[in-house]
Specification:
about 220 residues; alpha/beta; Rossmann fold; seven-stranded mixed beta sheet
Length: about 220
């Protein structure tokens, strides 16, 4: 696993997940909804390469590899602690052959430097990671640069809980903030602006009354 230069964000993620990474997969299945649907909906071309930005413990990549053993999978994460846990899941030589993990910042995505891959990639996905990335716009723009015209970025993440009672919404957001998860209304606004400009085609689905959203972003130019 190649480690890139340290950063405040990487150090913050390591601090948060130094211990909780050991129970991350067990606990997150109770509130990170829509992850498996995203994997099923990727519809990546046969034998292609897929990148997850913010791969964490590699839960999604291992699951996707079982679903689509023909794919080459790349995982990028800021936290060395999370990637240490992720690496332990790749004990099977077949998984190590199909999944490559690297440490780095999403907004600094560089396929040749980080993965030795020139690109472009037909599919990139974010699974509950954009709300944890302070320069989320930089992360999205970096992803758009590595997908070709017609390529897709898939996103599942927390939304505004618009149909929830105010006190419940407040309590959820306060709890999520402990893990540096920030609801960003400007994220959806940015995607919608790109769609209006004809740069992307945007398809959004609500999950549990806008608890979360699932988006398919198709690059058009």
């Amino acid at each position: 696993m190649v480690e890139l230069k340290p950063s405040h964000h990487a150090e913050q993620m390591d601090s948060i997940y130094r211990w909780t990474r050991h129970i991350y997969d067990v606990s997150r299945k109770f509130y990170l909804f829509g992850r498996d649907s995203l994997l099923r909906d990727l519809n990546a071309p046969q034998g292609s390469t897929v990148l997850e930005i913010g791969c964490g413990t590699a839960r999604n990549l291992v699951k996707l590899s079982a679903m689509r053993p023909d794919l080459k999978l790349l995982g990028l994460d800021a936290s060395a602690q999370m990637l240490e846990t992720a690496s332990k899941k790749l004990a099977d030589p077949a998984l190590r052959e199909r999944i490559t993990l690297r440490q780095g910042l999403a907004e600094e995505l560089d396929l040749p430097l980080m993965f030795g891959v020139s690109g472009p990639l037909p599919r990139v996905f974010f699974s509950y990671s954009l709300t944890m990335i302070p320069p989320w716009k930089g992360a999205l723009d970096a992803a758009l640069r590595v997908v070709p015209v017609g390529g897709e970025i898939h996103i599942v993440d927390f939304w505004d809980q618009g149909s929830w009672p105010g006190p419940t919404r407040w309590a959820l957001r306060r709890w999520l903030k402990l893990f540096t998860v920030e609801f960003r209304p400007e994220l959806m606004a940015y995607l919608e602006s790109l769609a209006r400009e004809g740069k992307i085609e945007l398809h959004v689905k609500s999950i549990f009354g806008r608890y979360a959203f699932s988006a398919r972003v198709v690059r058009r130019v």
